[in-house]
Design brief:
- There is one protein chain.
- With 498 residues, the chain is mainly alpha-helical.
- It folds into four domains: 41 residues, no CATH class; 187 residues, no CATH class; 99 residues; 60 residues, no CATH class.
- It has 16 helices and nine strands.
- It has a three-stranded antiparallel beta sheet with strand order 5-4-8, with helices on one face. A two-stranded antiparallel sheet has the order 1-2. It has a two-stranded antiparallel sheet with strand order 3-9.
- Strand 4 and strand 5 form a beta hairpin.
- Helix 7 packs across helix 8 and helix 10 packs antiparallel against helix 11.
- It is extended and about 115 Å long.
- The termini are far apart.
């Protein structure tokens, strides 16, 4: 009994933080407003966002009736995601968007389709934020006009029920991107590329990277040169000021008959001590030394950049020479193998080494016989090559051919066909909120109209502008074809009445 009494807990031993009820109350309100599909996962994302001091995935108010789509995206979710990501800039990495998307427990396949329509899936690591929001908004509406109205309501900073104004540049950026997109039918994307579209080669990507690197280097060089000019101007200015100060405060020295210095002062002016002048001179010298060191460091950086460019040029020239030598060697041995095949009187093959030995051996023996026949001594004409000499020549030929067979007759390696990896196929269904591409004439009309309207509205655009009867249409609507008028026919039966 004493052991049990010691292990019992009382209310004084249980410590509850004073803010715990407030945290639970806020959590319950957020869950009721958001109505998450997976409450457990959403709770994890909610408290993780609070721990990282970032806005949690909570809708501004309850959407009733609950608006449901295939991927779970709603207008409230899109508005919160947009305001969460607007603080990170215009081009965002894909992992940030995936993080915000996962916070609302939305379908990742839907996000993959949006990235495919933005043409960044498995192709780029960044996506323009306005393009992402525009395509996501198109998933929630029935045509392009309603999509632009929704985007104005999502991106506006005004309260609900207001004019929902957004900057004209942002409106045109989203509209031009959606108007030139074809989302009127189902499309397959293979590894992020639309079916029938050829992906970019590695050489093009390398060229783009090189151009970007060269542009950054040139920008840095210009920046360094501008810094040098500024520093030089500042140095000249400091030197002039120092010379002026030195001339202005030049001390006057007076000595007596014994050679002792007498203090000389002007009446009514402050006394200038020599020590202060020396200290000022030392400080100026130190400043000059520091500036010279900074100039030397910039010169060293410039020399290093020049050396890198020279080394790069030499390396490129060396590679070009190497490639030319390899091409020349390949052409020479191809011609050599072709000549041997023509001499043999048949097509060369990998197993024709014995035929080459016999043919070269016969040519050598014939050549020896020809040389003997030319000699003036008639006894030598009757002589022929001995079997020992023939055997010796045969052995030499065999050894030579064994060592150089790969060069004379290069083996044709049977290259196994590499199994191409199975591409990742993403089917993007037709998006009515984007629809077919808009003709360029209509796009030009909209641009002119928005530019004209935004002048008197502080460069802002609002839904009532393109709802106005003077506004050109944002998209091309299909005209309904009415049936042709048919001739009226009298009834063949029945009774005519008044």
């Amino acid at each position: 009994m004493p052991e049990l009494v010691e292990q019992m807990y009382c209310s004084q031993q249980i410590v509850i933080p004073p803010k715990f009820p407030y945290i639970l109350k806020r959590f319950c309100k957020a869950a009721i407003k958001t109505q998450p599909y997976d409450l457990l996962r959403w709770s994890f994302e909610y408290f993780k966002a609070l721990a990282e001091n970032r806005p949690p995935p909570v809708k501004l108010r309850l959407e009733y009736p609950i608006y449901s789509t295939e991927g779970g995206l709603t207008r409230g979710c899109l508005k919160v995601i947009a305001h969460q990501l607007l603080n990170f800039g215009k081009n965002l990495p894909l992992y940030l968007i995936r993080k915000a998307w996962r916070g609302f427990c939305l379908d990742p396949n839907e996000l993959r389709r949006i990235f495919c329509l933005c043409e960044v899936y498995m192709r780029q690591d960044y996506v323009p934020l306005l393009h992402f929001i525009a395509v996501a908004g198109g998933m929630l509406t029935k045509n392009l006009t309603y999509t632009m109205i929704l985007l104005c309501e999502v991106l506006t900073k005004e309260p609900d029920g207001g004019s929902a104004a957004i900057p004209a540049d942002d409106f045109l950026d989203m509209y031009l991107f959606l108007a030139r997109m074809d989302a009127s039918k189902d499309i397959k994307y293979l590894n992020g590329y639309r079916e029938g579209e050829t992906p970019r080669s590695e050489e093009e990507e390398i060229e783009e990277e090189e151009t970007l690197s060269e542009a950054t280097v040139d920008a840095k060089l210009k920046q360094l040169s501008s810094y040098k000019v500024q520093d030089k101007a500042e140095d000249d200015k400091a030197k002039d000021e120092y010379i002026e100060e030195k001339e202005e405060f030049k001390p006057i020295r007076v000595w007596d008959e014994d050679g002792n210095e007498i203090s000389f002062e002007f009446y009514g002016e402050p006394k200038i001590e020599e020590e202060n002048l020396e200290e000022e001179g030392k400080e100026a010298i130190e400043e000059e030394e520091l500036k010279q060191e900074a100039e030397n460091e910039e010169d060293v950086i410039q020399e290093l950049i020049d050396e890198l460019y020279e080394a790069r040029a030499l390396r490129l020239a060396d590679l070009e020479m190497t490639f030319d030598d390899i091409a020349r060697i390949v052409d020479r041995f191809q011609l050599a193998s072709y000549d041997l095949g023509m001499v043999a009187g048949r097509q060369m093959s990998i197993t024709s080494g014995e035929f080459i030995v016999q043919h070269i051996e016969k040519e050598i023996m014939d050549y020896i016989d020809e040389q003997i026949a030319i000699l003036p001594d008639p006894d030598l004409k009757k002589k022929k090559a001995k079997p020992e000499e023939v055997e010796m020549v045969r052995n030499l030929l065999y050894d030579f051919l064994d060592e150089n067979m790969d060069i004379i007759v290069p083996e044709i390696e049977e290259v196994e066909e590499e199994e191409l990896p199975i591409p990742e196929i993403v089917v993007v269904y037709a998006v009515p909120g984007i629809g077919p591409p808009v003709p360029e004439e209509m796009i030009c009309d909209i641009e002119e109209y928005i530019a004209d309207v935004s002048k008197s509205q502080a460069d802002l655009v609002m839904p009532r502008n393109f709802r106005h009867f003077l506004s050109p249409p944002l998209e091309k609507f299909e005209e309904y074809q009415y049936e042709e008028n048919k001739k009226e026919e009298l009834a063949c039966s029945g009774v005519f009445t008044n």
